[in-house]
Design goal:
The chain is of the alpha/beta class and about 325 residues long. Helix content is about 40%, strand content about 25%. The protein has a ten-stranded mixed β-sheet, with helices on both faces. Strands 4-3-7-8 form a four-stranded mixed β-sheet. It starts with a strand and ends in a 10-residue tail after the last helix.
């Protein structure tokens, strides 16, 4: 299959995200009594329900957040289909200031995901990935990575070959690697492959939420967030376990910090909370902030996205985040939204 690459920009982005398959999210609010109706008449109901359509996926959320909310030069590596959804993905990322020159256009369909959100902010996600185009390991090149400083990844066993290839090239080019553990189901079902990846020593920064942390050490005597943090810190320079409304714990070298969450205790939609936390934490590392400050910036950006539907922060909520940064005497990015 011939992949059509977009023209390269002259300057390498500081942070690169690898999302093998471009993805479009359809995010819709749903009440409890509507669910049965949705299951019976999905097409009719979805067309009648107001929903948000945007470029989606964990890595997409993180690099877009870094670009729009923090003014960091970012790029994305992956593939999109020659369809309406693929064009939407490219347009959304390009409009957000993310370099799209490392995206390959392929004949076929772009991945899609329906996200239903109840009035408590709980999500049900149903992706359609099986027939979607995606980038392959042998399509990655040294030129994709040259000049960048960070590579952002999400763990997925179906993408393990391309993830490993990306890490190999990234390390050759001197990049640091950030890994998100994706979901507790992914950790539970493919834990041995994940632990092997972590134990390779090639992951510099790892993010896990509380459920993923529990699965990582399931069956062991000590399996709480603190034990998971200790395990991750043995293999990664920075380790972070997010605890939802309870904040997060993090470790770098021998330093351990715990901070409280910032923002709403009840999320409108928790989609992207961990992804945007990663945006803020990475921004802190890039700016040379302390471990505690990195966590606080991450908490501010994670708190910004849960105030509205979807994994893309609205301009109003970026303003809210910048105000929180000011209140905590943290550096405020010099950008306008």
């Amino acid at each position: 299959m011939v992949a059509e690459a977009l023209p390269k920009s002259p300057d390498a982005p500081l942070v690169l995200g690898l999302q093998p398959a471009a993805l479009i999210d359809y995010v819709a609010p749903v009440q409890k009594d509507e669910l049965e109706h949705i299951l019976k008449e999905v097409n009719t109901h979805i067309s009648a329900t107001p929903f948000k359509k945007m470029a989606g996926g964990s890595v997409t959320n993180t690099v877009r957040g870094l670009s729009v909310g923090f003014g960091v030069a970012t790029g994305i590596i992956g593939a999109y289909g020659d369809d309406e959804q693929g064009q939407l993905f490219v347009s959304n990322m390009g409009f957000s200031g993310v370099s799209i020159s490392r995206l390959r256009k392929k004949k076929g369909s772009t991945a899609q995901c329906v996200c239903l959100v109840d009035d408590s902010g709980n999500r049900t996600m149903r992706p359609c990935l099986s027939s979607a185009v995606k980038i392959q390991a042998d399509e990655l090149s040294k030129e994709d990575f040259t000049g960048s400083k960070w590579l952002v990844l999400r763990y997925a066993v179906l993408n393990l070959e391309v993830i490993q290839a990306a890490i190999r090239i990234a390390k050759q080019e001197g990049l640091s690697v950030s890994l998100d553990l994706a979901s507790f189901e992914m950790v539970r079902n493919y834990r041995s492959e994940l632990r092997q990846l972590l134990e390779s020593g090639n992951i510099d920064l790892c993010f896990a939420n509380e459920d993923e942390a529990a699965e990582l050490l399931r069956g062991e005597q000590e399996a709480g967030p603190e034990a998971a943090l200790e395990f991750l810190s043995r293999h990664c320079r920075w380790a972070v376990v997010t605890l939802g409304p309870k904040g997060c714990i993090a470790k770098h070298d021998k330093e351990v910090v715990q901070i409280a969450a910032i923002g709403e205790t009840l999320a409108t939609d928790a989609t992207g909370a961990g992804d945007l936390f990663a945006s803020g934490f990475l921004y802190g590392l890039i700016k040379g902030l302390s471990l505690e400050e990195c966590c606080n910036v991450g908490s501010c950006s994670g708190g910004s996205v849960i105030r509205a539907l979807g994994g893309e922060v609205t301009p109003e909520n970026w303003q809210w985040m910048h105000k929180q940064l000011q209140l905590k005497d943290l550096p405020v990015p010099d950008i306008r939204n």
